[in-house]
Amino acid sequence: MSLADSISKALVPIHKEGYPFIAIAAVTTIILGWFWSVLFWIGLFLTGWVCYFFRDPPRVTPVKDGLIVSPADGTICQMGSVVPPRELDLGDQPMMRVGIFLSVFNCHVNRAPMTGRVTRVAYKAGKFVNAELDKASEDNERNGLIIENDNARIGVVQIAGLVARRIVCFVKEGENISVGDRFGLIRFGSRLDVYLPHGTKPQVALGQTMIAGESVLANLKDQEAGDLVARVS
Q1: How far apart are CA 204 and CA 219, in angstroms?
Q2: Under the phi-then-psi rule, with left for phi > 0, alpha for psi from -120 to 50, and beta for the rest, what region is 138?
Q3: Which of 9, 4, 15 lies closest to 52 in space, CA to CA?
Q4: What value, to the nearest 5°, has the Cα angle with vertex 54 and ends 49 and 57?
Q5: Which residues, including other chains, have CB under 8 Å from residue 133's CB and lie 6 or more apart?
Q6: 217 band by pLDDT with thresholds 50, 70 and 90
Q7: Strand order in the sheet with 95-102
Q8: How far apart are the C-alpha atoms of 56 and 58, rounded to whole Å?
Q9: Which residues bear the site annotation Cleavage (non-hydrolytic) (predicted)?
Q10: Angle between the N-to-C axes of helices 37-53 and 19-35, in degrees from 0 to 180, rounded to the nearest 10
């Protein structure tokens, strides 16, 4: 393997949504640096951070039937049975909700938690309170998807946070999507909620770190899995 190959494999790809922001940061850095060298180095650091924020690393996704994988990098912040948002049209019966909080240091590319057809995309304007709070699911700006297949119908909701001001969704109603496929992105801190069928037992714990497209949230074909016992080590 050549040195060029080694370097290319070490570099993490950047999502195209980040190119305009990287360009703006780079140009601003050059302009500020023309007036004061200290500002150049500060701008260079911030440009590097913007590149880091929009990273889009490849993921190895499990494809076993019944598995629901995490749609986002981040930390499990909420778990419990709640009535899903009205705009999803999932009914008024409680469903198992698993919330994943993304800090500004997490990768913000969102991935499909299961294979299926996107039967609904519903955007709702709202506030920008801290995404870790429970009320963020009801009050904040959000974009919801319904994914269906022969075995299940689940909801996935992108929620803007205190810093996030832009939700991007790449898919439309009627499209087919495979587990692990990229379906959206939220800029600068946010949350993803996954609504699972009633009776589903998540195989994660509060505070657990998730990797989008890789970490397993639940197994819909193993309803007797029971509660997860975990510890911090």
Answers
A1: 11
A2: alpha
A3: 15
A4: 115
A5: none
A6: very high
A7: 176-177, 116-124, 142-148, 153-160, 190-196, 95-102, 74-82, 209-210
A8: 7
A9: 189-190
A10: 170
CA distance 66 to 224: 13
Q: Which alpha helices (H) appear in 3-135, and where do they start and end? A: 3-10, 19-35, 37-53
Inter-residue contact 14 to 20 (CB < 8 Å): no
Range with the poorest average pLDDT among 5-19, 132-146, 160-174: 5-19
**Which amino acid makes up residue 83?**
V
> Rounded to whole angstroms, how far apart are CA atoms 42 and 167?
28
DSSP letters spanning 183-224: EEEEESSEEEEEEE-TT---S--TT-EE-TTTSEEEETT-TT
* pTM for the predicted model, two decimal places: 0.81
Q: Among all chains, which residue has been given the structure tokens 């991935």?
A: 111
- What's the average model confidence in pLDDT over 203-231? 77
Among 48-62, 128-142, 193-207, where is mean pLDDT lowest? 128-142
The CB-side HSE value for 87 (13 A sphere, CA atoms) comes to 15
Is 203 strand, coil or helix? coil
Count of all residues that appear for the chain in the document: 233
Closest to 184 measured CA to CA, from 72, 26, 92, 33? 72
What residue type is assigned to position 38 of the chain?
A: V
Among the listed residues 148, 96, 100, 89, the one whose alpha carbon sits nearest the alpha carbon of residue 124: 89
Structural Rg of the chain based on CA atoms: 19
DSSP label of 172: -
Active site (catalytic) residues: 190
